[in-house]
């Protein structure tokens, strides 16, 4: 089985090829094993959307677990819907169009796909970009059972790739963990903290089984993510 088999794929549909390509570059830093295809601009390189690019993108992104389409403007959604009408029943059943901010939704969906989320999980991750960040994991009502405070040592702190690595690790544990009061398993929540080198991250869990998760996440932060 190849690395991408079994993972949900993504297609980034934009009126600009530069936006779609740039989002692919960003998302690939966080989800290198996930099939993601840019479908930006018209067939002749102009501003607009391309039915042909969207249909081709769906076929390229489909590794068997389904495909999520993210669009920038309303007419891009219309192009995506038209493309779905031309798919066979089986292929159409594996595709979802998500109404979410393209960039924020795209990176959140990419990480959700990378950690093996099913298509509905990837859709929810993309939708979380539509304003749920501020509520994405307030401090639990119960006092934390275990807490660890770590000072960030890598140059850029929890920027895109390290934040994705942090979230991927958090999702391997069943225990709920927060970082500075935000859900450690949510990429958008973690990145919204704006943690840079020299700042402190308070990792906490109110779960009796959360000690291992807090320790592992703390160790990852202290390691500097392999950055100099």
Fold and architecture overview:
With 228 residues, the chain is an alpha/beta fold. The chain folds into 2 domains: 9-130, Rossmann fold (3-Layer(aba) Sandwich); 135-226, HPr-like (Histidine-containing Protein, Chain: A, 2-Layer Sandwich), CATH 3.30.1340.10. The protein is 40% helix and 16% strand. It is built from 9 helices and 8 strands. The protein has helices at 17-30, 51-61, 74-85, 89-92, 102-114, 119-127, 160-170, 187-191, 211-223, and strands at 9-14, 36-40, 67-71, 95-98, 146-151, 178-179, 182-183, 200-205. The strands form 2 sheets. The chain has a 4-stranded parallel sheet, sandwiched between helices. Strand 1, helix 1 and strand 2 form a beta-alpha-beta unit. The chain is elongated, with a radius of gyration of 18 Å. The chain starts with 8 loop residues before the first strand and ends in a 5-residue tail after the last helix. The model is unreliable at 132-140 (pLDDT under 50).
Quickly list its features:
elongated; 2 domains; four-stranded antiparallel sheet; DhaM_N; four-stranded parallel sheet; Histidine-containing Protein, Chain: A; alpha/beta; PTS_EIIA_man-typ_sf; 16% strand; 9 helices; 8 strands; Rossmann fold; 228 residues
Largest sheet: 4 strands, parallel
Biggest β-sheet: strands ordered side by side in the sheet:
2-1-3-4
State which percent range the strand residues make up: 15-25%
Distance between the termini: 34 Å
Low-confidence stretches: 132-140
Which class do the helix and strand fractions yield?
Answer: alpha/beta
Instruction: List how many beta strands DSSP finds.
Output: 8
- CATH topology of the largest domain, which one? Rossmann fold
Number of domains: 2
